[in-house]
Design goal:
Layout lengths: L2 H30 L3 H22 L19 H20 L1 H22 L10 H18 L6
């Protein structure tokens, strides 16, 4: 395996490990301030400032070569989805717990990814086969074992 692939895998695992911490921090911020919407806003504000500083530090042009209005309307959904995730995590962690919330998010990611890959949405088509379905079923079973919806909390 190439070094860049190993580095990319390690980076993805570290970021994945930090997501529940982000949700817990945001939930605590929401509990100590104006609520989950405020905490999600502050989280995005801090992230926007950091990314802006990185753009400046790397001398990345702030404006794309083509006008923003020329981009397809769906391109803005990435920010909407990111904001929805941060808000949902901030809202749900206090009631579901970090483990259950992240497991359910991963379940949604796997099922959604299988569908997007199968139809080749915005990328190479990777049809669903028996092994991929089995992987999805295992994720469903794993999420159920962590969330335990049959037990009262």
């Amino acid at each position: 395996m190439k070094a860049w692939a190993i580095g990319g895998i390690a980076f993805a695992v570290v970021i994945g490990a930090l997501l529940p911490l982000q949700a817990l921090i945001n939930a605590r911020l929401g509990a100590q301030t104006q609520g989950p919407l405020y905490a999600a806003f502050v989280s995005f504000l801090v992230g926007t400032c950091l990314l802006g500083a990185l753009l400046l530090a790397t001398r990345t042009p702030l404006w794309p070569a083509q006008p923003l209005a020329a981009l397809p309307a769906w391109i803005w959904l990435g920010g909407v989805i990111g904001a929805a995730f941060v808000y949902a995590a901030t809202l749900l962690v206090p009631t579901l717990g970090a483990g259950a919330m992240i497991c359910l998010v991963v379940l949604g990611q796997v099922l959604g990814s299988l569908a997007l890959d199968h139809y080749g949405v915005l990328g190479t088509q990777r049809p669903i086969d028996l092994l991929r379905v089995l992987g999805g079923v295992l994720v469903i079973v794993g999420a159920a074992l962590v969330v335990r919806p049959w037990q009262p909390h």
